Amino acid sequence: MTYASIDDRNRIENEMPWAERDLPRTLYGLLSRTAAAFPDRPAVSYQLLSGPKDKAETLSWGALRDKVAQAANLFRSLGIGETDVVAYVLPNANETIHTLLGGAVAGIVNPINPLLEPEQIAAILRETGAKVVVTLKPFPKTDLAQKVAEACRHAPGVQTVLEVDLNRYLTPPKSWIVPLIRPKVAGQRHTDLKDFNKELAKQPKTLQFEDSGTDRVAAYFHTGGTTGMPKVAQPTYDGMIYNGWLGHELLFSEQDSIMCPLPLFHVFACHVILMAAIASGAHVVFPTPQGYRGEGVFDNFWKLCERWKTTFVITVPTAISAMMQRPVDADISAVKTAFSGSAPLPLELFKRFEKACGVTICEGYGLTEATCLVSVNPVDGMKKVGSIGVPFPYTDVKIVKKSGNGPEECGIDEIGEICVSNPGVYAGHTYTEAEKNVDLYYWDTHLRTGDLGRKDSDGYLWITGRAKDLIIRGGHNIDPAEIEEALQAHPAVAFAGAIGQPDAHSGELPCAFVELVDGATVTEEELLEHCRIHVHERAAQPKHMTILTELPKTAVGKVFKPDLRKHAITRVYNGALEKAGVEARVVSVIDDKKRGLVAQLQANGASEAQVSDVLGAFTRPWEWAEAAKTAA
Q1: Stretch (H or E) spanning 26
Q2: Alpha-carbon distance 399 to 392, whole Å?
Q3: What 3-state DSSP class applies to 213?
Q4: From the centroid of its chain, how far is CA 92?
Q5: Which among 407, 539, 434, 403 has a CA at the least distance from the CA of 480?
Q6: 8 A C-beta contact, residue 467 and residue 451
C-alpha cells in the first residue's frame, strides 16, 4: 500500500472506525493469528556476539507462540493473575521476548532498564508491586545479577526471581570457561530463585488458562530518563495492537527482515517494532545483549545487515552518527528504508547517511505515554528533514495554546503544545498514580505531551522544544532548540544540549554542552563565538559552553538534560561560593520528588548563614549533604 501524504492517511482512516477493524482484541490472539498464518517463517533472531558469522538462534512464529504460552503458563503457576506484575531486568535475548510477551498474556509486564542503579530498580519494583522478577544469572562482564539481588532486598513484594543464563548462546571453548569464572552474588535472598529455561520447559505449549476476553492494561513502562522518581505509564492491549497494526498496514509484510539493535525495555523496540512484527509476520533481528551499545556492533553493522538480508533498519541519531564514522563494507542492497526516532535528526547527518548508504531515513515521533506511535514522514512521500511527519491514521494531533477561554487550537505554523488522541492514549489513566493524570489532558481526550510544536500547511508536524525545557531568562522565554540547531551546524559538533543555568539576577541564563565528532578539535570560546553569529536572538546566546567527552543520553539516544542541569548547578553554585570566599561546596545534586533538583553541600567549616547569603538569590534549593543522609 502506498503511504505518501496526509491524503493517504485520511483515506485509510475513512475506510472504517478503528473499533471495526478485523483485529484480535488481545496480544495472544494477535500472536496466534500470525503463527497460524506463517508457522514456519522466521519470527525473531538473536546473537550474543556481533560477528557476521557468530552463533545465532532463530525462532519461527510457531515456536515463538509455543514459548510465549509456556512463559504465560509459568507466570500463572507463580501466582500472576491479570492484575499482577512480572518485571524483567534483562539485556536483549530471546528469553527477554518470551518474558515480555508471556508476562503481558498472563498479567502485567514491567520492563526495567538494566542500566539503572539498584535503588532505582527497587523504586520501580515497589511502585509497580512486582511479584516475579526475571533477570540474568551471574555472568562475566556484567553486574546485573548483583544489582537486581540488591534491588529485590528493598522490594519486599518480590516473591520469585527467575534467572536467564546467557551461556547457552556461546560455543566452546567460551561456553566451557564461563562456569569457571562466573561471579557470585553476595548476601541473603528473601526470594525463591529458579532457572527460567528449566521452569519454562516444564510448561505445556498451549495456554492453560482462558485468555483475556476484553481490553486491559498489559504493561507498565517507567518513564523519566535515568534518574529521579519513576512515573509508570500503563499501555493497554488496544494501544499495543494499534501500534502493531500501523506497522503492518503501512510498512511490513512477512517477507521483511528488520534490524533492531534497540533495547527491549523501551517502547520503540517493544511496541513499535516487535508488535509490528507480530501483526505482520516480519522477521526481527536483535544483535547482542546491549544492541547498538554491544561490542563490535557498529564495526559489523553493515555485515550483519547483509547476513540477515535486512530490509528495514531501526535506529536513532546517536547510532547514525557512529555508523557514519565507519565505511559501508557489505552488500546492503536489500535495505529499503531506515527509521529514526527518539530525538531530532540533524540535517547534515541525514544527508551524510543518504549519500553513504543510498538509503532514505524516515523520522517519526512517539512517546511512552501514548503507547508510542504518533507520526512519521511518509515512506513513499515527501520527507521534510527535521519534521516528525504526518499523524498516523486514527491519531488526532492538535497544537494547543492556553487562553482566557481555556485551551484553543493554534493556527498554521503557530507554536503551541502538541496534544495527542489515538487508541494508544489511555485517556484519564495514562499513569498508574491518579494524581499524575491530573491536568494531563485537554477536552478529556487529548494527552498533553509537554512538547512544543507546530503544524505546517501540508499537515506535517514540527517539534520546536519541550515546554519544561524552556529557558526562562528574566521572564523571557527562550527555546533551547535555537541554540542546539546553531551548534549542530558546526562541523566539529556531533551533539548539543542547551539548558538554563541558575543566575542570581535573571533566574536562568542559557548555557550549552556539546559532544564533538571523533577527532575534531575546537575550543569552548570558538563555539561561543559561533553562537554569537548564528543564534540570532541576543538573549538566547549561551553565556557558558562546556565540551564533554560524551553527553549524557537515555538508552535510546536522547540528550538527558537533567544531568546537564545538575552539572550546571554544581558549576554555578561552587563558582559563586568560591568567589565569596565561602569554603562550602556542592558535592551532589539530587532529584527530589517534590522540590525538583536540590544541591547538596559539604560545609567544610562554612556556616548555614554564610551559604544562604551566597545561594539565597538562586531559585534552586540547597541542603547539607550530611543532614540529608541522616534524615534518609
Answers
A1: none
A2: 16
A3: coil
A4: 14
A5: 539
A6: yes
Higher pLDDT, 413 or 555: 413
Minimum mean pLDDT among 131-145, 493-507, 567-581, 589-603: which range? Answer: 589-603
Q: Is there a contact between 488 and 346 (Cβ–Cβ < 8 Å)?
A: yes
Burial of 205 (0-12, 13-18, 19+ CB in 10 A): middle
Return the C-alpha cell found at 13: 482512516
Asked if 517 contacts 493 with a C-beta cutoff of 8 angstroms, the reply is yes
State the cell numbers at 243: 501500534
What is the C-alpha separation between 310 and 287, in angstroms, rounded?
12
Please report, as a single letter, which amino acid is at residue 483: I
Q: For 473-505, write each residue's pLDDT tens digit.
A: 765 667 788 899 999 999 999 999 999 999 887
Residues 6 or more apart whose CB falls under 8 angstroms from that of 163 comprise 134, 135, 136, 137, 145, 193, 194, 195, 196
- Cα–Cα distance for residue pair 270/228, rounded to 1 Å: 23
- Please give the single-letter amino acid code of residue 419: C
Query: Nearest CA to 207 among 110, 65, 43?
Result: 65
Q: Select from 115, 145, 151 the least CA-distant residue to 130.
A: 151
**Within 13 Å, how many C-alpha atoms sit on residue 169's CB side?**
21
Q: Which residues of 12-35 are buried (b: 16+ CB within 10 A; e: fewer)?
A: bbeeeeeeeeebbbbbbebbbbbb
pLDDT digits (tens, 9 = 90+) for 260-297: 999 999 999 999 999 999 999 999 999 999 999 899 99
Q: What is the DSSP string of 598-631?
A: EEEEE-TT--HHHHHHHHTTSSS-EEEHHHHHHH
Chain-centre distance for alpha carbon 297: 19
Contact present, 362 and 389 (Cβ < 8 Å): yes
> Which DSSP state fits 402?
E
- Would you say 276 and 42 are in contact if contact means Cβ atoms under 8 Å apart? no
State phi, psi for 540 to the nearest 5 degrees.
-90, -10
> Which grid coordinates are listed for 430?
495514562
Q: Residue ranges of the alpha helices (H) in 41-173?
A: 61-77, 94-106, 118-128, 144-153
Read off the amino acid at residue 454. R
Among candidate residues 342, 362, 374, 347, the one with its CA nearest the CA of residue 261: 342
Q: For residue 598, list its beta bridge partners.
A: 590
Dihedral over Cα of 407, 413, 417, 419: its sign: positive
